[in-house]
């Protein structure tokens, strides 16, 4: 599940927007926010090898993408699929650029786009729902696979698929 999302300008490490899960189940939220801010400072100094990266941090992963001198970062549970995390960041980037693109370079204070936090929260909810749906689909399909295997055993009368059917 997505726990924290932050957007920062890479040229100076200035945080532009932030979205936090309701925070009830995130222990040490301030600690992880500080880690994210430290990461932004390091990225502003040119200390990054990749424009897409996942970083282990305790029971979570930080995933980020950098594009157009802006870093889009999210922190997720370790079990959260990386593909879904990066899709979330891509969608978020597109929306942030659409809404605030012309103002990014002129932002002078931290969290200048704090109102975008409401958009972040709705995106977090959407991707949480998508994750639940994908888990449900996998469970549902595996149920049919099991039923299908059971039916083959009943119809053909054997248990090892490599052994020929004896009539």
UniProtKB/TrEMBL annotation:
Keyword Nucleotidyltransferase: no
Transmembrane segments: 126-147
GO CC annotation terms, alphabetical: endoplasmic reticulum membrane; Golgi membrane
A GO biological process held by the record: endoplasmic reticulum to Golgi vesicle-mediated transport
Bilayer topology: Single-pass type IV membrane protein
GO MF assignments: SNAP receptor activity
Pfam families: Longin
InterPro entries (UniProt xref): Longin-like_dom_sf, Longin_dom, Sec22
UniProt subcellular location: Endoplasmic reticulum membrane; Golgi apparatus membrane
UniProt keyword list: Coiled coil, Membrane, Protein transport, Transmembrane, Transmembrane helix, Transport
Subcellular location, principal: endoplasmic reticulum
Domain of life: Eukaryota
Longin domain mapped to chain residues: 6-120
Family classification: Belongs to the synaptobrevin family.
Name of the molecule in the record: Longin domain-containing protein
């Amino acid at each position: 599940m997505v726990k924290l999302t932050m957007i920062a300008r890479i040229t100076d490490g200035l945080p532009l927007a932030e979205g936090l899960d309701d925070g009830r189940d995130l222990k040490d939220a301030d600690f992880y926010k500080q880690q994210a801010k430290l990461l932004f400072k390091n990225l502003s100094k040119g200390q990054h090898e990749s424009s897409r990266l996942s970083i282990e941090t305790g029971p979570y992963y930080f995933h980020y993408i950098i594009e157009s001198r802006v870093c889009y970062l999210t922190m997720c549970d370790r079990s959260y699929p990386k593909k879904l995390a990066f899709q979330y960041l891509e969608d978020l980037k597109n929306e942030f650029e659409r809404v605030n693109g012309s103002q990014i370079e002129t932002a002078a204070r931290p969290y200048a786009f704090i109102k975008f936090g409401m958009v972040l929260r709705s995106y977090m909810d959407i991707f949480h729902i998508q994750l639940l749906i994908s888990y449900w689909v996998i469970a549902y399909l595996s149920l049919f696979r099991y039923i299908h295997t059971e039916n083959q055993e009943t119809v053909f009368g054997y248990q090892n698929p490599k052994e020929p059917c004896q009539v």
